[in-house]
């Protein structure tokens, strides 16, 4: 496909440094490797990065949903500026994140589109990256502001750290995406097996309840009908989460989701035709 702009974005969350390190260390190399692609780089939230915080007023990666609401915040201003950069142009967005969970290398698709699915499939076939489908009907995510976009999400990476392996994996995935840009046609058809997000599981309200150590870090492990997700530390009782059929938990114990009480997300593995 021909794009007018390919926007590679880091620090949508200020405490996730992998994208910034990619841009600082490898922007020239990326540009030289793909001289015919209109690549631009962007640090999405420099102020949050400076303060080593996920955000200043509110999450930039959720704010696009109600962008026209009469509310002022640092991130809303950034979001409006960002929208101007992609407005009226055919843009591909590659938005780079890291997770504190034991996720491994993943690509996240939020918009149902053949190009996104096909590129993700090609990249996953030559790397160890898993593909997650997180349908964003409300278009709250930054990457959903164009029809064409992929998030790169790599874990485990602690907040406010640079991790060499995560950065080199991120470079590899970015290059693999870019390799496919011109080759994949707008009207491409095919099938892809991916992990679709189905349900968010909250921490139980019972005091002293934590993630069960035998469950924690088991992102993408296959479970059937239930998992012993939590442990009550005072009674030593395990707390079971039921989910009918085969499922795969992801983002287990993600530090950023604690403020919303979110413990993990349940995915199912499905095949999508596009
Ligand atoms: Zn993030």
Condensed summary:
This protein has 274 residues and is of the alpha/beta class.
Structural write-up:
The protein is an alpha/beta fold. 24% of the residues lie in helices and 32% in strands. It folds into two domains: 5-189, Aminopeptidase (3-Layer(aba) Sandwich), CATH 3.40.630; 194-273. It is built from five helices and eleven strands; from the N terminus they run E-H-E-H-H-E-E-H-E-E-H-E-E-E-E-E. Helix 1 (18-33) crosses helix 5 (164-181) and helix 4 (114-126) crosses helix 5 (164-181). The protein starts with a strand and ends with a strand. The model has no long low-confidence stretch (mean pLDDT 96). It binds zinc ion. Residues 12-13, 16, 97 line the site of zinc ion.
Quick tags:
274 residues; alpha/beta; Aminopeptidase; 2 domains; eleven-stranded mixed sheet; 5 helices; 32% strand; binds zinc ion
């Amino acid at each position: 496909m021909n794009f007018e702009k390919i926007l590679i974005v880091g620090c949508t969350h200020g405490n996730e440094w992998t994208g910034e390190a990619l841009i600082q260390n490898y922007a020239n190399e990326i540009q030289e490797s793909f001289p015919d692609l209109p690549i631009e780089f962007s640090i999405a939230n420099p102020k949050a990065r400076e303060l080593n915080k996920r955000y200043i007023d509110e999450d930039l990666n959720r704010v696009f949903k109600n962008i026209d609401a009469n509310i002022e915040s640092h991130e809303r201003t950034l979001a409006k500026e960002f929208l101007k950069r992609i407005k009226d142009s055919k843009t591909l967005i590659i938005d780079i994140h890291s997770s504190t969970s034991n996720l491994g290398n993943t690509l996240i698709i939020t918009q149902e589109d053949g190009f996104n699915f096909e590129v993700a499939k090609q990249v996953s076939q030559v790397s160890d990256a898993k593909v997650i489908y997180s349908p964003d009907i409300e278009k709250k995510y930054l990457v959903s502001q164009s029809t064409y976009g992929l998030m790169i999400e790599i874990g485990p990476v602690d907040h406010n750290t640079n991790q060499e392996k995560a950065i080199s994996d991120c470079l590899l995935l970015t290059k693999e995406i870019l390799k496919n840009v011109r080759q994949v046609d707008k009207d491409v058809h095919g099938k892809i097996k991916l992990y679709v997000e189905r349900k968010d599981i909250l921490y139980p309200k019972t005091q002293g309840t934590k993630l069960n150590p035998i469950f924690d870090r088991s992102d993408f492990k296959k479970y059937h009908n239930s998992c012993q997700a939590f442990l009550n530390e005072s009674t030593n009782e395990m707390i079971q989460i039921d989910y009918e059929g085969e499922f795969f938990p992801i983002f287990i114990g993600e530090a950023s989701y604690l403020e919303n009480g979110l413990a993990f997300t349940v995915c199912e593995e499905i095949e999508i035709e596009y």
